[in-house]
From TrEMBL:
<dbReference type="InterPro" id="IPR024079">
    <property type="entry name" value="MetalloPept_cat_dom_sf"/>
</dbReference>
<keyword id="KW-0479">Metal-binding</keyword>
<dbReference type="GO" id="GO:0004222">
    <property type="term" value="F:metalloendopeptidase activity"/>
</dbReference>
<comment type="similarity">
    <text>Belongs to the peptidase M7 family.</text>
</comment>
<dbReference type="GO" id="GO:0008270">
    <property type="term" value="F:zinc ion binding"/>
</dbReference>
<dbReference type="Pfam" id="PF02031">
    <property type="entry name" value="Peptidase_M7"/>
</dbReference>
<feature type="signal peptide">
    <location>
        <begin position="1"/>
        <end position="26"/>
    </location>
</feature>
<dbReference type="InterPro" id="IPR000013">
    <property type="entry name" value="Peptidase_M7"/>
</dbReference>
<protein>
    <recommendedName>
        <fullName>Extracellular small neutral protease</fullName>
        <ecNumber>3.4.24.77</ecNumber>
    </recommendedName>
</protein>
<keyword id="KW-0732">Signal</keyword>
<dbReference type="GO" id="GO:0006508">
    <property type="term" value="P:proteolysis"/>
</dbReference>
<keyword id="KW-0482">Metalloprotease</keyword>
<keyword id="KW-0378">Hydrolase</keyword>
<dbReference type="GO" id="GO:0005576">
    <property type="term" value="C:extracellular region"/>
</dbReference>
<keyword id="KW-0645">Protease</keyword>
Length: 192
């Protein structure tokens, strides 16, 4: 009798495992099992010393990417201009960043500007809410703001967008330009 009970119990346990566990070959790889997406960054001119710091900031906040600095080329290329505004193409780990020395010399934190523009190349758009805790608020937070770190929500958004590892959501090419204004443009008054 005991043998029948044990045999029946073992059969039920086996059936539960067999019907509840997904087949190994049928399940897609989980995001955590994929390698982080490798992104290289080059350039920066007189602001090049801020590039490794900004890379470290993004690497420490977003586990699904691994950015590194290279001497030329790279997925993200940074140039310095005089005028025209700091701006970056919206990409999925690729694109071009222009740092406007005239704007930065108005007193904005170079590290914050570099990290902010990298945020665009990682897919984030501007959020001119004036909050220093939001990296993508850009210049609307004022020259006193020195925070170069993305908020938890910004980091989470980038992390989720790179959850597929090397399988980018798009071709990796920039999809649009985000023209920053440091400070942010004044709100257009609503006609009454």
């Amino acid at each position: 009798m005991l043998r029948r009970i044990l045999t029946a119990a073992a059969g039920v346990a086996f059936a539960l495992v067999a019907f509840t566990a997904p087949p190994a070959s049928a399940s897609p790889a989980s995001a955590s099992s994929l390698a982080p997406r490798s992104i290289t960054v080059s350039g920066g001119g007189e602001y090049s010393s801020y590039v490794p710091q900004a890379i470290q900031i993004w690497n420490s906040h977003v586990p699904n990417i691994r950015m590194s600095q290279v001497t030329s080329g790279g997925n993200i290329r940074i140039y310095v201009v005089s005028g025209g505004g700091s701006r970056a193409s919206i990409g999925h780990g690729s694109g071009t960043i222009y740092l406007d020395r005239l704007q930065i010399n108005q007193g904005y934190s170079p590290l914050r500007v570099v990290a902010h523009e990298m945020g665009h190349s990682l897919g984030l758009r501007d959020n001119y809410n004036g909050s220093c805790t939001i990296l993508m608020s850009g210049g609307s937070a004022g020259t006193a703001c020195r925070n170069p770190n993305p908020s938890a929500a910004e980091a989470d958004w980038v992390n989720r967008s790179f959850a597929g590892g090397f399988r980018a959501a798009d071709s990796g090419k920039p999809t649009e330009w985000s023209v920053d204004s440091w400070p942010a443009p004044a709100a257009v008054p609503v006609a009454s």
